[in-house]
User: Which sequence fits this backbone?
């Protein structure tokens, strides 16, 4: 006679935890900057977390072909490739500016890389205003024009673009697209193959957030980034908080996303120079998993 093994309560809990961690992704930038893509993949996969978001500089250090095989071998979903866009032709703090053609070429390269590693989306950060200029509406026109050009290439390669609106504090040097409404207005004009990445850190303050999540709907809610806004943040760029340590009601926001039809992973993205980047990457991933299960 076959002895059927009755799962103990403990086994059930472990299985449930594993199922929930399938819905978690770790953005590579959450780990200290000296962690390679290969190490990040191994640390995240060992914890049985479902996904990873990859940064282009780390991807190129690793080699795209090597990265693709590591990601497949460890069975990780790539929730995003960070990042393309920057339609003003300048990186924040960067000394060199690119011509329009160079900037478009760089976006095309990012689309090809996203296709190679089978990223669910290519994250688009709009870019700010060029050094020495003051024309905000012209900068926004550049974004619309640039997206129009690169979207065709993305559709050809089967890559989905996700515009990530950034908090208005970054309007000058990172993104002249500050709200979900602005991002969705662009999507309305551009058509298929493009949607939004909702980052809790950038959008939590917006009184229109819930309405815009509903407006986006399942077709255009393409990524959900989580972390926390520390009440007395010391630096809006590099002092992001771990989920549960700040003022964002992440459970409520996740509820809004899921009620609007979002069924993807929750991606932890924490830039934290003085706190989380000072710790062992394994410990950071452990805390991310615990907080995801308890606070999100
Ligand atoms: Zn983000």
Assistant:
């Amino acid at each position: 006679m076959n002895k059927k093994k009755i799962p103990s309560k403990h086994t059930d809990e472990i299985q449930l935890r594993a199922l929930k961690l399938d819905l978690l992704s770790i953005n590579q930038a959450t780990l200290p900057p000296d962690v390679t893509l290969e190490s990040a993949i191994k640390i995240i996969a060992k914890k049985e977390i479902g996904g990873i978001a990859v940064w282009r500089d780390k991807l190129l250090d690793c080699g795209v072909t090597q990265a693709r095989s590591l990601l497949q071998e460890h069975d990780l979903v790539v929730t995003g490739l960070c990042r393309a866009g920057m339609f003003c032709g300048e990186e924040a703090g960067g000394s060199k500016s690119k011509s329009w053609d160079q900037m478009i070429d760089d976006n095309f390269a990012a689309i090809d890389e996203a296709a190679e590693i089978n990223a669910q989306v290519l994250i688009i950060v709009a870019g700010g205003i060029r050094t020495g200029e003051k024309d905000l509406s012209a900068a926004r026109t550049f974004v619309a024009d640039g997206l129009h050009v690169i979207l065709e290439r993305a559709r050809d390669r089967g890559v989905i673009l996700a515009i990530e609106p950034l908090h208005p504090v970054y309007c000058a040097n990172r993104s002249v697209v500050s709200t979900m409404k602005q991002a969705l207005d662009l999507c309305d004009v551009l058509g298929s193959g493009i949607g939004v990445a909702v980052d809790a850190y950038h959008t939590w303050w917006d009184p229109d957030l819930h309405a815009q999540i509903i407006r986006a709907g399942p077709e255009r809610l393409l990524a959900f980034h989580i972390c926390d806004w520390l009440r007395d943040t010391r630096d809006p760029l590099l002092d992001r908080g771990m989920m549960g340590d700040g003022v964002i009601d992440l459970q409520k926001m996740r509820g809004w996303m899921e009620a609007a039809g979002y069924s993807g992973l929750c991606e932890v993205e924490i830039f934290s120079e003085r706190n989380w980047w000072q710790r062992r990457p394994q410990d950071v991933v452990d805390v991310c998993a615990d907080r995801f299960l308890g606070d999100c």
Q: What stands out?
A: The mean pLDDT is 95. The pocket of zinc ion is lined by residues 164, 199, 225, 269 (CB under 6 Å). The CA atoms of residues 105 and 150 lie 9 Å apart.
